[in-house]
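Example record

The entry below shows one chain as it appears in the dataset: sequence first, then structure tokens.
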Amino acid sequence: MVQLIHKRFKSPIFIENQIRFIPILLPIVSFVLCVVVFFLDEIKQISNELLFWLPFILIQIIIAMTCGLLIKEYYYGAHKDVLTGLYNRRYLNGKLLEELSHVGQTHSELSLILIDIDNFKKVNDTHGHLMGDIVLKKIGEILRSDSRHIDIAARWGGEEFAVILPETALNYSYKFAERIRKEVEDCDFGFKVTISLGVVSTYNEVSLDELLTQVDQALYLAKEKKNIVVAYPKLGYPV
């Protein structure tokens, strides 16, 4: 029980949920402290003391709000990809570990999609790196807009992306992947861009390495033909 609580407090999702309240909590705490000091000082001279302490209270609140916003910005900067605005691989790995632990406790199904842009080097070489960035941003927008609030979309690195779909069976994950593939194919960049996708699903707790190995193998099979989705219904059994 203690280990479970410890893991929860170290979870990036738990930390993120607390970080978002910092800009609100710091000013409240600062205001309360200032009020306490004010009333402890000279209770009898409320009107005069209020004029004296009011500027300090306002300054303290402004400083607290600024510090809170900076802390929030730095935290998100450490977990977000600057170019696409999606989560980065570090955050994704932490979330995957959390979801795999949840699967082990509840035996709910978990799916993972790994995405690779086909011939992305050719895009950069032919159309320039600026156009390559536009392609990456657009795919990031598609993943963000099509994902549910419980899904985690991330830039895996380079031209690769990943999406975690908690409590999601393979058939839905495959349809989701196919929809993403079609939307990217239909995008008008002035040239055709396609993606290959590997999908894996599990309802038993497995190691992170095993999950990533299987989804990488599914993606490898997809990249052999390009612009298709390859799925594993459960670890170790390709279809």
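Notes for this example: The first strand starts at residue 110 and ends at 117. Residues 38 and 53 are 7 Å apart (CA to CA).
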